[in-house]
């Protein structure tokens, strides 16, 4: 699996240091509140798991599964809800946890949806931001890293469901896409 990686963009150590900082920041921002931390599956799973362990406050978690990429490296533009939340958002301070914002279509859909469910506030924390991919105007409140205009994999991010279990973020060798 590792021999299919052309370049490591963000190492495991650098990822974990940043997640520690993001957790500390969120702990300060949400002190004395009881936020609902919503992970967007499947990609956000490793990030969410590590981030909440770095948040030193009471919080609640829930998970939503959405998909718009399927087997492609380009968004279909249609966000499909695979699994909805179990928790009511009425009056809640919601923190959406994402692995990447690329076109922005997934998050703009979710932010709109959560507002119609009467959340008190909706903030976005994303591990990665790829501003060159943007199709709709959406900005995260907290970002781990800006990534270049390339399809990245690892630490939750997949190509045809593979590579999510890499502990780092990398770029695949071109021949992987030719298979
Ligand atoms: O800003 P966008 O262009 O919408 O891209 C970001 C979304 O795309 C990926 O999810 P995907 O739909 O591939 O589902 P997955 O998390 O199950 O891999 C990623 O995890 C984000 O949720
Ligand atoms: O660069 C990416 N890699 C994996 N999944 C993604 N979903 C949006 N952009 C990406």
Automatic annotation (TrEMBL):
Its main location: cytoplasm. Its EC number is 2.4.2.8. Its cofactor is Mg(2+). Residues 17-159 form the Phosphoribosyltransferase domain. It catalyses: IMP + diphosphate = hypoxanthine + 5-phospho-alpha-D-ribose 1-diphosphate; GMP + diphosphate = guanine + 5-phospho-alpha-D-ribose 1-diphosphate. GO terms for cellular component: cytosol. CDD domains: PRTases_typeI (cd06223). It is found in: Cytoplasm. GO terms for molecular function: guanine phosphoribosyltransferase activity; hypoxanthine phosphoribosyltransferase activity; magnesium ion binding; nucleotide binding. One of its GO terms (biological process) is guanine salvage. It is an enzyme of class 2 (transferase). Pathway: Purine metabolism; IMP biosynthesis via salvage pathway; IMP from hypoxanthine: step 1/1; Purine metabolism; GMP biosynthesis via salvage pathway; GMP from guanine: step 1/1. Keywords: Cytoplasm, Glycosyltransferase, Magnesium, Metal-binding, Nucleotide-binding, Purine salvage, Transferase. Purine salvage pathway enzyme that catalyzes the transfer of the ribosyl-5-phosphate group from 5-phospho-alpha-D-ribose 1-diphosphate (PRPP) to the N9 position of the 6-oxopurines hypoxanthine and guanine to form the corresponding ribonucleotides IMP (inosine 5'-monophosphate) and GMP (guanosine 5'-monophosphate), with the release of PPi. Belongs to the purine/pyrimidine phosphoribosyltransferase family. PANTHER family: HYPOXANTHINE PHOSPHORIBOSYLTRANSFERASE, HYPOXANTHINE-GUANINE PHOSPHORIBOSYLTRANSFERASE. This is Hypoxanthine phosphoribosyltransferase. It comes from Fictibacillus marinisediminis.
